[in-house]
Amino acid sequence: MDVGIRELRDGLSRHIAAVREGHTITVTDHGRAVARIVPVGAPSNLEKLIAEGKVTPARTARRPLLTPVESRGAVSDLIAEQRR
Fold this sequence. Notes:
Blueprint lengths: L1 E3 H6 L1 H9 L4 E5 L2 E6 L7 H8 L22 H9 L1
Parallel strand pairs: 1-2
Antiparallel strand pairs: 2-3
């Protein structure tokens, strides 16, 4: 069900009741979809794909981020210095 922002605001209780019943609401702004309100218990698209066996979840957790390199000055200055 597509609902404009104004209509959503004016009938919020009614639309939330529809979501409780299992409906998904797509919120539009000037005809363009900007948000989706889904029931809390509904599986995400990724969860559906995993359940269907179309996607395999990662076996390990993400690697930790690298430690930033300390530098003096802006990157563009460092590049200019390297080119000399």
